[in-house]
Design brief:
Order of helices and strands: EEHHHHHEEHEHEE
Distance between the termini: 25 Å
Number of helices: 7
Shape: globular
Strand order of the largest sheet: 6-5-4-3-7
Number of strands: 7
Number of domains: 2
Helix content: 10-25%
């Protein structure tokens, strides 16, 4: 782990960072703490039915929330701000429309404040390739080529792209040695799809890391962490 103030780190890469205190845990915690959270959950289907249609796009929109929206609104509060973001970007609502309604009598305050969009550099992504179109809406794809790695291979994620675009490669595994534990079905690469650069489908691997490899000698002994990683993230550890 590294020591850093919670808000000094990218929103989408907080794993393994100190500064957050004890993780609260209540085995009897309800799914919703208030009725408005239940209603927000119910909006997910309609909102994504008319926006954020590409794999990874909704999650990338969450990453682009301003710190006050991400940290201060709670889990479902982030969803509200993200709905506003993607619905504006798809033209379902006008820019600033929610803000204007909230500023009207009976409103509750300003709407979301979003970070700038990072376009992502397609030249830093693996080549795109044609795959059969699935019948149902799914991120899974059928690839003709065999997976590059097999179970038991030792792998390493050497670095992340320098363009600052969306990625599912957690910073705390970069440069760490892991072992392929399982091969999942191939999927659309969200690093590309979130930026509308094509699907660039990839084989997906479940990689096993020893906790001591990730966190150092202070890690709990005998603990392992399994992380799903796309093939383009990985190289042979040797």
């Amino acid at each position: 782990m590294t020591d850093a103030g919670p808000r000094d780190q990218p929103i989408h890469d907080l794993g393994g960072r100190r500064g957050w205190g004890t993780v609260p845990y209540d085995p009897n915690e309800p799914a919703f703490h208030a009725d408005w959270e239940r209603r927000v959950f119910g909006l997910l289907g309609p909102a994504l039915g008319s926006s954020a249609t590409r794999p990874g796009e909704f999650r990338y929109a969450i990453e682009r929330l301003a710190p006050e929206d991400y940290f201060d609104r709670g889990y479902y509060g982030r969803w509200i701000a993200t709905f506003e973001t993607v619905l504006e970007e798809y033209g379902v609502i006008e820019p600033g429309e929610v803000d204007r309604r909230l500023d009207a009598p009976g409103g509750t305050g300003p709407g979301s404040r979003n970070r700038s969009v990072v376009a992502g550099d397609p030249n830093q992504l693996p080549a795109d390739r044609q795959t059969p179109t699935p019948i149902a809406r799914t991120v899974r794809r059928e690839l003709e080529d065999a997976p590059r790695f097999v179970e038991g291979d030792e792998v390493i994620a050497p670095a992340r792209r320098a363009d600052g675009g969306h990625t599912r490669l957690a910073g705390y595994v970069v440069g760490k040695r892991g072992t392929v534990a399982k091969i999942h079905p191939a999927e659309v690469l969200p690093d590309s799809a979130a930026h509308d650069h094509g699907e660039r489908a990839q084989h997906v691997y479940c990689v096993r890391y020893a906790a001591a490899e990730l966190w150092g000698p202070s890690a709990e002994e005998g603990v392992v962490v399994h992380i799903d990683l796309y093939e383009s993230y990985l190289e042979p550890a040797t």
